[in-house]
Amino acid sequence: ASLVQYADNGGRLPRGPCAGGDSYIMTGCPSTSLIVSAYVKDLLKKVDAEHAYDVMRRNHMPGGMMSVNAHYLDKGFSPGNAGTTVQWAFEDWVLAQMARKLGKTSDYEYFLDRSSGWKNLYHPDMGLLLPKEEDGSWLHTDPLSGRGWVEANAWQGTWSVSHDIEGLAELMGGNNLCTKLNHAFEQAAPTDFVFAYGGGYVSYANQPGCSNAHVFNHAGRPWLSQYWVRRVNEQAYGGVTPDTGYGGHDEDQGQMGGVSALMSIGLFSLRGTTSDNPTYEITSPVFDEVAISLNGTYYPGGRFTIRTYDNSAENCYIQKASLNGKPLDRCWFSHKDFAQGGMLELWLGPAPNRNWAAADLPGAESN
Fold first, then answer.
1. 160 Cβ partners below 8 Å, 6+ apart?
2. Each residue of 11-29: pLDDT tens digit?
3. What is d(CA 313, CA 97) in angstroms, rounded to the nearest whole number?
4. pLDDT tens across 278-302, in order?
């Protein structure tokens, strides 16, 4: 409600509000994801949904906080900046989800179409997204260069099309996506997945790449998410001193701590719970048991518990799972199940079970 009130008072949704104004730090319209996430989870209680949607729609158009340009609207990408292109595309997809639930079919189709513009930046020879000039030529072809990205590079930022990993996999030729992303993690492991802005294959020292380990869940290789989430959490976030815990990390309002916490309890949402049927993806927790108390004002269930068996540093792979006593053969469950409270049980082992949860992919029900 406060985000919408900012727009009611000043015309734009906030981005880095400071001293009664906006700092305009960073890019896009991040408020959209927060508002839509609340709406699809039936948590938007203090502001009218139609009004909130109208505010977001206005901010996704020229003159709004998203700051889209005519070239993006016409050609699908922002000249010279792949980073803003993938962010705008994701946020357009998010807004489309709310449009669909509100019955705004033409808006849904319009923003859904805009959300696919990132495909114009796919370089078939490199197998990654790269920035383009206004005339459609490549700005450069160095996948480790931060030029044309927002604190990232092609190796880090290509996977940020969280709304369409299936489409990215199709462009890459199916299983090539997992092979390529796994290679990136292997290259980054010796430096604990920590690099300066725009450097390295995978960096958990800054926001743009903080979801990359969870992409495997959406590409049919959940055991790779289980493995790399454990590795990143231990190597990048496992220390308890300023030098080995968050040393060199761009914490930014607690996001690194938040990512570490989600990795530790084994839950994540690649799309930020913004899809029509919001879901949580599962990896292997570091704790034997996690009890999440649910606020009765918003959730009918009193507690959601995650319990593991045979948990250890070596046993990072999920062998089987159950939700409320019933077998669960997928690496995700819905927010509706979470809100009702219950028990998620995970049996862990030292080797991947490649038959568990490899078919029913998270988000497959959303467009």
1. 86, 87, 90, 152, 208, 211
2. 899 888 877 777 888 899 9
3. 39
4. 999 999 999 999 999 999 999 999 9
The answer as to whether 333 is a domain residue is no
CA distance 298 to 304: 14
State how far Cα 314 lies from the chain centre. Answer: 27
Q: Give me the number of domains the chain comprises.
A: 1
Q: What is the CATH number of the domain that holds 108?
A: 1.20.1610
Token digits for 258? 């938040």
Contact 332, 292 (CB under 8 A): no
- Candidates 315, 310, 299, 305; CA nearest to 350 is 315
Look-up of token digits 């990143």? 232
**Residue 132 within a domain:** yes
Stated as kind and residue range, the H or E segment containing 343 is: strand 342-349
Handedness of CA 4, 5, 10, 14 (dihedral sign): negative
Amino acid, single-letter form, for residue 54:
D
In our burial notation (b when 16+ CB lie closer than 10 A, e otherwise), range 209-223 reads bbbbbbbbbbbbbbb
β-strand partners of 323: 326, 344
Amino acid at position 165, single letter: I
CA 345 to chain centroid, in Å, comes to 24
